[in-house]
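hi support,

uploading two proteins for the ticket. first:
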Amino acid sequence: MMRKRYSVPYDQGEITFTLPEGFREAVVAEHARMPPLRDLGAAIQAALRSPTGSAPLRDLAAPGDKVCIVVTDMTRPCPDHLLVPPLLEELRAAGVSRQDITLLVGVGMHRPSTAKEKVAKLGKDVVSEHTVLDSDPLDQSRLVDLGLTTNGVPAVVNREAVDADLLIGTGVVEPHLYAGYSGGRKAVAIGAAGERTIEVTHGPQMLDEPGTRLGRIEGNPFHQAVTEIAQKAGLRFILNVVLDEDGDVVALEAGEPEVAFERLVEVARDIYEVDLPRRFDVVIGGVGYPKDVNLYQTSRAPTYLHFAPQPVVKKGGTMIIPARCQEGVGQGLGEQRFYEIMRSASDATEIVEDARRQGYPAGGQRAYVVAKVLRECDVIIVGSEHPRLVEEMKMIPAAHMAEALGFVEGKHGKDADLLIIPHALHTLPVVK
């Protein structure tokens, strides 16, 4: 009898594998599917003409206004090449000139985007005709201190955003480890933030708060801080989307940031949240491009599995994450800080204890949450182009799925209870 074949994303393709002889069949958790919007251009136009909770964009802008549109960087799959041109058309209809529009790529603590990435993100015509800048969390001359949020988070945001007469943001609404759901105000409040804001919002005190949780909006102090920072910066209008695993838009909203975001969260919850009957010994989680280009982004998968409303993997279990990681750990300052913290510690417990005792710089939060996972589970990275780096990061490299499953057999035996989540970053598993 032919054994069942399973597939999970890997780079821009997928890895297909079978379980070893004698293993019981795996449970596969797929999120719900919605059909892509048939005429995306028409849907965007309709949303911009009749936005949620806001006047149309062309009524918010006026000739002579300085306008800033904050977009996500290449680590986020937001289809800005489809979203930004209609926004620019609305601004032109309001009489705003090209030279008064700045497109700000919110890179957070990641590396600056390349010229090629800006074109891929926004389109050749947009880049050639408009000012396109990366945010910079370290350049004090480009940062504005807007004071503290009500829960004590410093609101420091790039000047190009704060000084605009009209501030607009794009984004993708999907499960997020700290914010509950990404999108909405996050591109401005975190993507275009200064280092101090990122450091505090991602610090151990914030991340240890019980309300800072994947999929949770209500009572989430991270979400509260992000909301207030964007308000302080003056964010007035967003155009956000919900995507399927192929990157196609299944829902979108334009308008007032809070109302439009909350409407998309309801759609996202219906799609992404999946009920599970129990916790598992082993979970195989797919990532795929662009998140699997480096270990920093890839490591989101095991943390999502662990910091779901309840951990999906049993204590002492194993996570298997196929990821190419062609950029190694990653090239930005945050990625390098992640690497140094993980590499220099003797074990995961030391990382957690040091973080709680003395904190860490922005970027170190990834080491903190990954270490919290590694204290309870083994994490295997399959197919990385940099296996030595995987080892330095306290994880286990495997050249292929057969090697990873051999590890599972040796650790858990053939009776291991396996779960496969093909799209681990787009699936919110809820253990009932």
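and the second one:
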Amino acid sequence: MCISGYCFSSVLSVASVVEKLETRCVVVGGGPAGMMAGYLLARAGVDVAVLETHADFNRDFRGDTIHPSTLELMHELGLLDEFLKQPHQEVRELRGVINGQVVPIADFTKLPTRCKFIAFMPQWDFLNFLSSHAKRFPSFQLHVQTEVVDLLIENERVKGVRAKTPRAEIEMRADLVIGADGRHSTVHTRGGFERREFGVPIDVLWMRISKKKDDPEQSFGFFQHGKLLVLLDRGDYWQCGFVIPKGGFSEIKANGLAQFQNDIVSFAGFLRDRVDELDDWSKIKLLTVQINRLRDWCREGLLCIGDSAHAMSPAGGVGINLAIQDAVATANLLAEKLRNGPVSVADLRQVQLRREWPTQLIQGMQVFIHRHVVTGQASGRRNSLPFVLRMLKWFPILRQIPARFIGLGPRPEHFRSPSVGP
């Protein structure tokens, strides 16, 4: 039986029911890269299924930044006006409180884009918006609670995926599998790719603290002697990211919760009256920060994009921007060919060739920032600023450089993929 681009059959065994499905393209992971790739491919008339492990997109450990380049893409798609009706905050200048000094870092108001700001929006709202529009295309399917556990490989070519759902096991065959399942990717592990690791001297502690109406707006990162506190506005609470030297969580726990609460208050004094909400270490989660990338992003029948191909540090929120641009490049280069049949590994390599050097440049800059700007402060005078930040404070025109780097990226993508209309 075939419905909307899918062919189904069921095989009943004593142990379980295995559903056999076929489509043109399987996208593993419903994050920014996976959902954008699924949307654009469906928009181009490619039968595509996005497989998402969880039942929804609501996860605390997601970034909130929608960069000017992504907003420009939404404009090109004709979705911007509707998108900006979603609850969000607009930040036109990125500033940091560094060793007690307010430092303007990036000025987005001079960017050559329609929206000259970063929009802060919970990522689940962004993904829900994108998926709701993707579902308008008959060639798009979103499968939630579908965990990919293995690849189907025949004669060295990836032919699909094997997945688990609450009701059955699935074998979904496809001409192309796109791995967009994050830094702990099953796809790139099962695909046998070699990964290069770059040392990152930080980790992140993640927690919630309630928010009050008179709290300051979300526009600051608080830096102090090798540590950083970032507050993400979730409406009625702050999602707090506390950056610490790598491996430092054990020492923090040994010093006790009271000292940790005092550390938070030393960054953001307005939290003093509620920091005791962090009354148990179970409310504080450790996220290990990684910067890495695959040596090869593809093999026959398989392409990795986003964090699956290159895990980024949270610095600047640029990982989301990079992942979305990977998805746009993928659709631009592959959609028309994929609509008519399989694509070759040479076609897949074109995606890596286009997106690899921007990745290398951004990751190199992140490593530099972590080693010389963030953790490097620990060895300086108490109220000192790194030289680069002093230059940004003294010469406003220089703030346009990090604005372009953060807001647009080294190679911003624009839609070139065809559209068949909903």
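thanks. also noticed: The chain has two domains: 2-64+121-196+293-374+394-407, 202-288.
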